[in-house]
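WARN retry 2 of 3 for item q-0093 after timeout on previous attempt; input resubmitted unchanged.
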Amino acid sequence: MAAGEVVGQLNAALAIFTGAARDEERFASLLMVTRIDAAALRAACGDAYILQLRDAIGFVFLQRLLKTALKGKSENADLFAAISLSILHVFSEATAVSATPEYAGMEAVVASVLEAYAQRADPSARAIIADCTHYFLALLQHVPLTEPRARQLLTHMAATLANVAVRANQTALQAAIALAAKVLSDAVLPFAACEPCIEALCVIFLESSDQPKFLAASALVSALERAADVKHTPSIVMSASEQQQQQQQ
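OK item q-0093 returned
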């Protein structure tokens, strides 16, 4: 698709949003935005189109959509959550947006959405869980893992992912791996920073009968141990591995 065409589509959608008198019109314009070829926009405009989105849409309406989704009274609740999180996903791709207090200010409502949708295992919920996780990973890029706030975020996400894993949601393993990748991307860390990831992965061990997944999670735990400079395998990992082996015998 030609660069001029996708830029024209974006400008048309944002013109509808900024000129809208009702939330229904604003939501319709966001639907238009999510259907534009993001790769073509990125190629044509770089991060400039993300800044344009942020300036036109902001965060207030996205937060309102997520709160409406949490109430669960609308038949479009899942769609409200999905569209809002899709826009946040785009925002996370530009540091000039994801490093702002406004982006961080979405943390509480996204955490509530993550917890709510962790109770479900349908495809719509899995996609929303993945986008929530992406939001937190983007947020963590700007929070040193040595800070208590990072520990809090990691612990919260690990607990929620463990809850998802119990329901055999395959997204949990993908999200846990992404979270662990963030830990591994930093310098050598104290074990406390890695422990929530390991705990979430252990739950996946115990709930998964899929051998490839088990092996992937085992390898990830080993990598986390090396990153944390841990000389001995933590007891929680040993007990999980032993229990999994016993189940397979």
